[in-house]
Write a structure and sequence with these properties.
single chain, three-stranded antiparallel β-sheet, five-stranded parallel β-sheet, alpha/beta, 51% helix, 9 helices, binds 2'-deoxycytidine-5'-monophosphate, Rossmann fold, 219 residues
Length: 219
Amino acid sequence: MVITIDGPAGVGKTTTAKRLANKLGYQYLDTGAMYRAVTYFFRQNSVDISSESQVKKMLDILNLELDCTSNDDMKLLLDNKNISSLIRSKEITNAVSKVSALQAVRERMVKIQKNTAKNGNFIVEGRDIGTVVFPDAKYKFFLVADYDTRAKRRLKDFKRVNEELNVNKIKQDLTDRDQYDSSRKLSPLKQANDAIVIDTSNCTIDDQVNQIYKHIERN
Ligand code: DC
């Protein structure tokens, strides 16, 4: 079974998805990390993302493996090298929206996502999981939070990978990225009609997880 968790950056999707996966004994698939991995790969190889043929050629040789079995972060191996923390840098964060808007990239990633989660129980988090990737999922959640809360959470994420940023700059980046992700032509960030919205602004992680858990238990 697949449970989808969508929403913009900094609303607590990742921590919630991981905790929920642990609680339910499910695997956890972080699709944002996949788009980050492709962005990392393209930057390593100086790919011109305005060239469709170059993008397609590089996707053909992309050797990305996912390990969703860990109780902690999903592991990403690019040519057998663990790039899980390298994809969290400011540089990748700033570049990923444009890469994730490319049709060839989305087609390839969605295919991997469907294949990965088709056998087994998965919590899948992203932006288009309830709308495009798994529109028939039984449980769909869409997380939201106010900008102050989201910026503070992102600040913590950056500190974890030793990057210093100012909270106002992060707020601006979040606004820009939301605007870009929500208005792109392909699979924009959008709440599925049948998703349950959870506002995490004043929630602890435990609250968020429990709200979702209770909903699943009830239904
Ligand atoms: O959740 P995140 O910040 O790691 O996501 C990185 C980027 O990938 C974000 O700009 C939106 C994009 N993304 C997407 O387009 N579709 C998804 N299913 C997941 C993420």
